[in-house]
Amino acid sequence: MDKHHHQLPLTKSTSRQRYNEWVFRDVPSDITIEVDGGIFSLHKFPLVSRSGRIRRLVAEHRDSDISRIELVSLPGGTESFELAAKFCYGVNFEITAANVAQLCCVSDYLEMSEDYSKNNLGSRAEEYLDSIVCKNLEMCVEVLRQCENLLPLADELKIVSRCIDAVASKACVEQIASSFSRLEYSSSGGRLHMIKQANCELDWWIEDISMLRIDLYQRVITAMKFRGVRPESIAASLVNYAQKELIQKSLSGSNIQEKLVVETIVSLMPVEKFVVPLSFLFGLLRSAVMLDCTVASRLDLERRIGSQLDTATLDDILIPSFRHAGDTLFDVDTVHRILVNFSQQEGDSDDDMEDVSVFESDSPTTTPSQNALFKVSKLVDNYLAEIAPDANLKLSKFIAVAETLPAHARTVHDGLYRAIDVYLKAHQTLADPDKRRLCKLIDFQKLSQEAGAHAAQNERLPLQSIVQVLYFEQLRLRNALFCSYPDDDIKPMHQSWRINSGALSAAMSPKDNYASLRRENRELKLELARMRMRLNDLEKDHVCMKRNMQKSSSRRFMKSFSKRIGKKFNIFGHNFSRDCSSPSSQSERTESKITERT
């Protein structure tokens, strides 16, 4: 039905122009019908012979020579009544998918049934609907579009339900037929296999049903899911419909309509994992946040995103905040809830893997769940670095996001250190206790050599954190030397010094504690400098040894060379162990050397 014709009221002049072509001209009119402001001067006999309602209304005006009847709320308005009047006058016209819904509704309103005339309008329209329309998917969709303006009567007459069932049934049959057509017999393997085919060729109905209003579209998709249409096809249809309603019609549509579309699409999404594209889920979530959709819709989207967060990108999770002024630039709370969903689902999968590992001892050490954790940990660290410069970002929110993942998720803490450094740089007024609380997130043993070197010189870090960095840097160097030359006197460094130092500092006053930390910091820096020089000497000797081995194969030369290197190792090992035996004596020697130099 043309909406323009439906909205244009039929005045006296326009009605004459339209019905003068088929109404009796030589017989005076004896009844006037008014429909939505349109006036029809007609004759009683052809009308009362077909319409039970008009017959009853005319009987109420027997005393009047000319009756005037107003038909209130006639479905389809003047256009529908004109078609019904033509039928009463015996004028031929074509029943099509564009007018059959109107004819069914107007014939019901005017009571044009078999009780008043054989082969009346009602039975003719019903026959066309059942025998023609319901056997063609495109025609069913067209009828459903016409029913949008004929509700609730079209529902009461089961026009909508019949068309919806036909659409769902046709889509399911087409899907099965296309599956069989893609089966191919393999002579080599003696088995059937499926030939891949583009979705656009299989699901040609997606574009047709995207023209429906959201309420009818919802009913069609629900019927398709009940019939067993593939989840991939359902998801493709939802994506296509959302793009039309939320992107192409966003300028002309209202927020209320868009909100209804988002909430409906979320409720229709298949339960199967990875069927709906992750980028589409994030797009819907942004719309849901902006349109203030129901909590249930947003939580459903967050749960779905959390189940496949390891495939997300940084741009995906940078969701703008649409709240009041003074809030963060990005919606941190939403991302935090997504991470909580991810962590909970990963925890469940870990439990499942533990149950399986009891029976499968040969399973790989790195599970898919662990791989997902590694990917998400990098994503989170990049996200923290991106939101850290926001002046409105509270420390508690930053820490909450960082702590969402389990400790074993991060094998390297470089990304987390970088994010914390950006936060400290942007929030320079942060109190020392808050700085220490923030830096407790970092495992300084998991910093790379480059990140450790940067942290050792980073004045934004608390003094305690710098001491830890220097200590682990020293520990790494000594252990590297021990592993390279196990026969030497160099011993691997352990954490007893750190524990003793911590115990002493806890018993001191704050002023003495600070001085002690400064002294330990200075000692560690000097010790690291000496160890790096020793390591450079060893590397040079190692290079020389390789060159000499290539030049000469003499065992005598190798023996003398080994003795020379061995002496150097013993001296280094003796001095190193002596230097590390007492931090206080080391400090005295270091300070005396500095004094002599100055």
TrEMBL record:
Skewed-composition ranges (Basic and acidic residues): 588-598
PANTHER family: OS12G0117600 PROTEIN
One Pfam family from the record: BTB
Pathway this chain belongs to: Protein modification; protein ubiquitination
Spans annotated as Disordered: 579-598
Membership in a protein family: Belongs to the NPH3 family.
Lineage: Eukaryota, Viridiplantae, Streptophyta, Embryophyta, Tracheophyta
Alphabetic keyword roster: Coiled coil, Ubl conjugation pathway
Example of a GO biological process term: protein ubiquitination
Coiled coil: 514-548
InterPro entries the record matches: BTB/POZ_dom, NPH3/RPT2-like, NPH3_dom, SKP1/BTB/POZ_sf
Source organism: Nicotiana sylvestris
Name of the protein in question: BTB/POZ domain-containing protein At5g48800-like isoform X1
Designated gene of the protein: LOC104218095
Keyword Ribonucleoprotein assigned: no
BTB domain mapped to chain residues: 29-97
Domain NPH3: 203-476
Keyword Transmembrane appears in the UniProt entry: no
